[in-house]
Write a structure and sequence with these properties.
With 258 residues, the chain is mainly α. The protein folds into two domains: 2-70 and 157-257, EF-hand (Recoverin, domain 1), CATH 1.10.238; 85-138, no CATH class. Helices cover 55% and strands 11% of the residues. The protein has helices spanning 2-18, 28-39, 45-82, 130-138, 167-194, 205-215, 221-227, 230-233, 242-257, and strands spanning 25-26, 91-96, 99-104, 121-127, 165-166, 202-204, 239-241. The strands form three sheets. The chain has a three-stranded antiparallel sheet with strand order 2-3-4, with no helix packed on it. Strands 1-5 form a two-stranded antiparallel ribbon. The protein has a two-stranded antiparallel ribbon with strand order 6-7. β2 and β3 (99-104) form a beta hairpin. The longest helix has 38 residues, at 45-82. Residues 6-41 form the EF-hand domain. One of its GO terms (molecular function) is calcium ion binding. This is Caltractin. Keywords: Calcium, Repeat.
């Protein structure tokens, strides 16, 4: 957790360096330069566009989730305010000698041990003439309807890349790139373990057999042959280089995530 906080601080610091005008956004060219500063790797334009699309979608989902939580809290607060307990004691309005009298309070029925009547508050309203009083007494008050409508209004964070990339999107770009790079490093390490020492730079059936024996992994000849099937590898040779191995693993991982 602490390392994650430090990483985000580093990302923010690099972003501020390239945000020379303090506008809160940097250009795509600056994003590429900033990525190289942090990761030491250069990215192509097509790769950068994919990273931006992923980052914008990730930030938009985060903001939608936060907005949804805020809307739920607001709706809960409004519901509590509109509940009968929050509306106060009932009130009764009567007309006496042309004057409107309002009584409010809680009226309790007498109990067996004695009468228990709550104190009523009496408030005199403005005088009314008999005709108006009669009209008021005979009229039926319109019912009051309290409705609570809760809207979830997520804010879209999808930006036109020509408008620049803000800190939130830039942070997601960097984290995505670092995660991808770490996985590629793991694949490179795995490839080195499987690499055929007689044919450097390639994994062969023989090197897979050797690795399986050393690790105690039980692989049949059919399973090994399937690994090097041209329909699986996409190459006609009986050996796989690092690039092909990495592509195969990335495709398999993407299929698992989807």
């Amino acid at each position: 957790m602490t390392s994650s906080i430090f990483l985000r601080e580093d990302i923010k610091e690099v972003f501020s360096i390239f945000d020379e005008d303090s506008s809160g956004a940097i250009s795509m060219q600056d994003v590429r330069r900033a990525l190289y500063t942090i990761t030491g790797q250069r990215v192509t334009r097509s790769e950068l566009l994919k990273l931006i699309a992923f980052a914008q979608d990730a930030v938009a989902k985060q903001q939608q989730a936060m907005q949804h939580q805020q809307d739920q809290v607001t709706c809960l607060q409004r519901s509590k305010m509109a509940s009968p307990e929050a509306q106060g004691p009932p009130s009764v309005t009567t007309i006496t000698d042309g004057e409107v009298m309002s009584f409010s309070g809680n009226i309790r029925s007498p109990s067996q041990t004695g009468a228990s009547i709550s104190t009523l508050s009496v408030r005199a309203e403005s005088p009314m003439n008999p005709q108006a009083a009669a009209a008021t007494a005979g009229s039926t008050p319109a019912p009051t309807v309290r409705s609570q409508i809760c809207f979830v209004s997520p804010r879209s964070h999808l930006l036109d890349s020509s408008e620049g990339i803000d800190l939130d999107v830039f942070e997601q770009i960097v984290l995505r790139k670092l995660k991808h790079r770490n996985y590629e490093e793991e694949l490179a390490y795995t490839f080195a373990l499987l690499e055929d020492k007689s044919y450097l730079g390639f994994i062969t059936k023989e090197s897979v057999r050797r690795a399986a024996t050393e690790t105690g992994e039980a692989l049949t000849e059919a399973e090994i042959a399937e690994m090097f099937d041209p329909l699986v590898t996409g190459v006609s040779t009986a050996a796989v280089d690092l690039s092909t191995f990495t592509d195969l693993q990335l495709k398999a991982r993407k299929a698992e995530d989807s």
